[in-house]
Amino acid sequence: MFMQREIIRLEPPHGTCDYRGSTTDLYTKNYNTTYSKLSCLKSCYQTIVNRYCNCSWPMYYISDTTNVCNLTDHTVDTCTAGLTSAVPDEYATCDALCPQPCNEVEYDMLSSSAAWPSEKYEV
User: Fold this and answer.
1) Does residue 122 form part of some domain?
2) How many structural domains does the chain have?
3) pLDDT in tens, 63-81
4) What pLDDT, in 10s, does the model give residues 8-56?
5) Residue 40, CA distances (Å) to 2, 25, 29, 53, 97 in order
6) Which positions are tagged coiled coil (predicted)?
7) How far is CA 33 from the centre of its chain?
8) Domain range for residue 8?
């Protein structure tokens, strides 16, 4: 069974949520999805990879104007693997550019179990 939970956060000046990030959310822009912190972070990280390695990380959104990073190429693999260590401040900036959304819906899966047959079971 799935349970829907709606999260409503306080807007500025009382909170730090927003309806969009301060950076382009590629998923919202290209797939018309609802803004989320995760999609904004992935978009921000992809921008960093594009800037420093001249390619797009294959696990994030890839635009038509960039090449996919060839991770079998040692130079490209070294660039992408060492990027978080090389420019940690840029990755930290992504967190500030991507606030939590003011409204969010989450779904939790609930499951239960019981011994079969139960004492209450009638034949």
Assistant:
1) no
2) 1
3) 887 899 999 999 999 999 9
4) 999 888 988 888 888 888 888 888 888 899 999 999 999 999 999 999 9
5) 26, 5, 10, 20, 8
6) none
7) 12
8) 2-103
At 42 the three-state DSSP class reads: helix
Q: Determine what percent of the chain falls in helix, strand and coil, rounding each to the nearest 5.
A: 35, 15, 50
C-alpha radius of gyration, the chain, whole number: 21
Residue 56 lies in a domain: yes
**Token pair listed for 33:** 């999805």
118 inside domain: no
In the chain, the DSSP E strands lie at 2-8, 103-109
Confidence of residue 91 (pLDDT cuts 50, 70, 90): very high
Question: Which CATH number fits the domain that encloses residue 94?
Answer: 1.10.287.820
Asked whether residue 123 is assigned to any structural domain, the reply reads: no
- Tokens linked to 86: 């090389």
